[in-house]
Automatic annotation (TrEMBL):
Catalyzes the reversible conversion of ribose-5-phosphate to ribulose 5-phosphate. The active site is at residue 110. Belongs to the ribose 5-phosphate isomerase family. One of its GO terms (biological process) is pentose-phosphate shunt, non-oxidative branch. This is Ribose-5-phosphate isomerase A. Its EC number is 5.3.1.6. It comes from the Bacteria. Pathway: Carbohydrate degradation; pentose phosphate pathway; D-ribose 5-phosphate from D-ribulose 5-phosphate (non-oxidative stage): step 1/1. The keyword Transferase does not apply. Substrate binds at residues 33-36, 88-91, 101-104, 128. CDD domains: RPI_A (cd01398). It catalyses: aldehydo-D-ribose 5-phosphate = D-ribulose 5-phosphate.
Length: 239
């Protein structure tokens, strides 16, 4: 790990430590996915070992395996359909707490779990902050059938919404297509500037082959962001 990577990892750990203070006994928690959410899962595991009683819903099979290895009590949304809190990472956060998520490929489950939660809190390092979304590619989960026409329609409708850029199928190991936990594919859209995320979200919802997109709008209540100047808390303007 390079010095800069170690520094960022330290910021992520600091944000996770701050977020664990939000967890109270008896809570029903959503556990996020990715390199930023993983330290929070570790924090939950440590508190469980100390006697904290919680029940958790993981947002991916990878998080499920991680949490199970830490003996964190797990459930499903079918058995526990209402959650108190979800803590997850983000690829990009704007000043209205609108997010781009899905870099880890779990955006569908992440959005379902976040929507089922009373509160969603994002933890991140300060490189994720952005005035306008678009510095990180926007992931879109799509079905396998009709992939090429789906990508073409995404491109056309996104252009109508003021977003243009390269749309590329995400690759996994051995240059094979990346496959989500649901068996779908992901296309990453390099839109340098998403000036109106709500307009783009509406456009993407019109594409039949789109399962879900990585724009998380109106879901995040708080962001805990760590950087060289310590940990800062950002709250949704309407909160």
């Amino acid at each position: 790990m390079t010095d800069s990577a170690a520094t960022v990892a330290g910021y992520k750990a600091a944000a996770a430590k701050a977020a664990i203070d939000l967890v109270k006994p008896g809570m029903r928690l959503g556990l996020g996915t990715g390199t930023t959410a993983a330290p929070f899962v570790e924090e939950v595991g440590a508190r469980v070992r100390e006697g904290l009683e919680v029940i958790c819903v993981p947002t991916s099979e990878a998080t499920r395996a991680h949490a199970a290895a830490l003996n964190i009590p797990l459930t499903t949304l079918d058995d526990t359909p209402h959650l108190d809190l979800t803590v997850d990472g983000a690829d990009e956060i704007d000043d209205q707490l609108r997010l781009i998520k899905g870099g880890g490929g779990a955006l569908l489950r992440e959005k379902i779990v976040a929507t089922a939660s009373e509160r969603m809190v994002v933890i991140a390092d300060d490189s994720k902050l952005s005035k306008t979304l678009g510095s990180h590619p926007l992931p879109i989960e799509v079905v396998r059938f009709g992939l090429n026409p789906t990508m073409l329609l995404i491109q056309a409708l996104a252009a109508e919404a003021g977003c243009e850029g390269e749309i590329r199928l995400r690759r996994g190991e051995g240059d094979r297509p990346f496959v989500t936990d649901q068996g779908n594919l992901i296309v990453d859209c390099a839109f340098p500037r998403i000036a109106e995320p709500e307009v783009l979200a509406f456009a993407l919802a019109r594409v039949p082959g789109v399962v879900e997109h990585g724009l998380f709008l109106g879901l995040c209540d708080m962001a805990i962001v760590a950087g060289a100047n310590g940990v800062k808390i950002y709250r949704h303007p309407g909160a």
